[in-house]
Design goal:
This protein is mainly β. About 5% of the residues lie in helices and about 45% in strands.
Length: about 450
C-alpha cells in the first residue's frame, strides 16, 4: 500500500470532505422530525462482536449554555440495551491497519507482514481475502459504494500502473494501465458499474472503465492538465478544464459551464469537497493564479446544482452532514435568547425547516436519524471515555455517557441513530445513540 494509503490508514480516519456525508433511513415515526437514512445495516448489528459494553449514564453534561431554569434536573438512568458494542473485526496495530469503506458498512484489514488484504462487513463476515504478495499488489483502495476494492500492481512509481478490481461474489478483473486514484477510491458512476480514471501521468486523458472490464471509453484528451472531479446525478463525469466545468457523457455528449471567476482570474485546479447523496449538488474548491476569496484559504468555492454554478459564501452555521437527498443539517452559530434552532437546509431550494430547538452550543461530531453525537464531553474535551448524545425535537442538551473505553474523535454515521467509531485501543465499536439517550 502506497504512502498515501498508509497516511489514510490512521486511527480515526476521516475524509478530506468539509462535511460528513450522512445518509439515514426515514421511518414513519420520524417523518415530521428529520429525514431518515438510506444506509440499512442489519438488525443483527446490536449483536455484533465479541464483547458488549453496557454504558452507564453520567450525571448532567457540561453544556456551553445553561438550560432554562424551568428544566428538570438531569438524573442518571440505568440502560438495559447495549450501547457500545465491539465488532468482531481484527484489532488495529502497528502491523495491521484498518480502513473503513466510504459507505461505512465495510472494513478493509491490511496485514503488512503477510501482505494480505481482508474485507469484512460489520457483522464480522469475511467477504474476500487477497494475497497481495502472490499477485504483486502494492496498493489498495475501496470502491466508493463499498461493493469492492481497486488494486494496483507493481512499483509505486512511475505511474500509470496496472489496476484490477474485485467486487464481492465476482472474480477479480484486470482493468489495464491507469493512474491509481486517491485513498477514497476512484470516481464511481451512480449505478456503480463505471469508474473514471486518468490514464496518463500528466493528468490530461480521462477514460471511463466498466468494472466488469467489458468496455472502456475515452472521455477527454486535453492539451493542458485537467482535474477529474466525480460523477453527477445524470451519469456525467465532471472535469475542470481552465475556467470551465465539463460534463462528459458516456455517449460522447459534452456540456460546458463557466465557473464564474472574477475577471482576469484563471483556474489552475479544482477538487470535489462535498456532494449530496443524490449527486444533484456538488461543492467544488477552485484554485487560481490569484486568491479567489478572503475565506477558505483563498480558494474559490462553487456550488454545482444540476446545470447551474453559483458562488458559495461563508456560512453562518455549521454544516454537520447530509440527512437526505440534498438536505443538510445545519447547526447555527448565533443564539436567540440563549437557544439554537437546528434546521434542515435544502441546498437546491435554498429553504430551511426546523428540526429542534436546543440550549446547547456545541456542534455535534455527526448525526444519524434524530441523534446528534459528540465524541467527548461537550465544552470540556474531545475524545476520551465519554461521549454525548442529544435527540432532536426531544432533548434540550447533550447527555453524557461513559463508554468504558477511550474513543477517537471521528465517527462514521450509520442509520437509525448508530455510529461506527475507532477506539484508541485499536478496535472498532458501534454506538447505539438511541439506547444511550434513553
Amino acid at each position: 500500500m502506497g504512502a498515501a494509503a498508509e497516511a489514510g490508514e490512521r486511527r480515526g480516519y476521516r475524509s478530506d470532505r468539509t462535511t460528513w456525508r450522512v445518509e439515514s433511513r426515514m421511518t414513519a415515526a420520524r417523518r415530521d422530525l428529520i429525514l431518515g437514512g438510506v444506509h440499512r445495516p442489519s438488525r443483527a448489528l446490536v449483536m455484533l462482536g465479541v464483547a458488549v459494553i453496557t454504558a452507564s449514564c453520567m450525571s448532567a453534561g457540561t453544556p456551553s449554555l445553561s438550560p432554562p431554569a424551568s428544566a428538570a434536573a438531569p438524573t442518571t438512568r440505568s440502560i438495559s440495551a447495549p450501547v457500545v458494542t465491539r465488532l468482531s473485526i481484527p484489532q488495529q496495530t502497528e502491523r495491521v491497519r484498518l480502513k473503513v469503506a466510504p459507505d461505512h458498512e465495510h472494513v478493509l484489514v491490511w496485514d503488512i507482514d503477510a501482505q494480505s488484504f481482508t474485507f469484512f462487513d460489520l457483522q464480522g463476515n469475511v467477504l474476500a481475502t487477497v494475497d497481495g504478495r502472490a499477485l504483486g499488489i502494492t496498493w489498495a483502495a475501496w470502491l466508493p459504494d463499498g461493493s469492492g476494492a481497486i488494486f494496483a500492481n507493481g512499483p509505486q512509481v512511475p505511474q500509470p500502473r496496472e489496476l484490477s478490481v474485485l467486487r464481492w461474489g465476482r472474480p477479480r478483473v484486470d482493468l489495464g494501465l491507469a493512474l491509481a486514484p486517491d485513498i477514497d477510491g476512484p470516481p464511481q458512476s451512480p449505478d456503480g458499474d463505471w469508474i473514471a480514471l486518468f490514464v496518463d501521468c500528466c493528468r490530461r486523458h480521462v477514460v471511463a472503465f466498466r468494472l466488469d472490464a467489458s468496455d472502456r471509453r475515452e472521455l477527454i484528451s486535453s492539451a493542458a492538465p485537467i482535474s477529474l472531479l466525480g460523477w453527477d446525478a445524470r451519469s456525467h463525469v465532471l472535469v475542470q478544464r481552465g475556467n470551465d466545468i465539463l460534463r462528459l457523457g458516456l455517449d460522447g455528449t459534452r456540456i460546458s459551464t463557466d465557473l464564474g471567476l472574477p475577471a482576469g482570474a484563471h483556474a489552475t485546479s479544482a477538487y470535489l469537497s462535498d456532494q449530496s447523496p443524490d449527486r444533484r449538488v456538488t461543492i467544488l474548491r477552485v484554485a487560481a493564479d490569484r486568491p479567489l476569496s478572503d475565506s477558505f484559504n483563498g480558494f474559490g468555492v462553487r456550488s454545482l446544482i444540476d446545470d447551474s454554478v453559483s458562488e458559495v459564501r461563508p456560512p453562518r452555521a455549521y454544516a454537520i452532514g447530509w440527512i437526505g437527498g440534498h438536505e443538510k443539517l445545519m447547526f447555527p452559530w448565533e443564539t436567540v435568547s440563549g437557544r439554537r434552532t437546528v434546521t434542515a437546509y435544502d441546498a437546491i431550494m435554498g429553504s430551511e425547516r426546523p428540526l429542534g430547538v436546543i440550549g446547547d452550543g456545541v456542534p455535534p461530531s455527526a448525526v444519524s436519524g434524530r441523534i446528534l453525537l459528540f465524541l467527548g464531553e461537550p465544552s470540556v474535551n474531545a475524545g476520551g471515555a465519554v461521549f454525548a448524545v442529544l435527540r432532536l425535537g426531544l432533548d434540550d442538551g447533550y447527555k453524557n455517557v461513559s463508554a468504558g473505553i477511550d474513543l477517537d474523535v471521528s465517527p462514521f454515521p450509520l442509520a437509525e441513530g448508530r455510529f461506527l467509531v475507532y477506539g484508541r485501543d485499536g478496535w472498532l465499536y458501534v454506538i447505539d445513540g438511541e439506547a444511550a439517550a434513553r
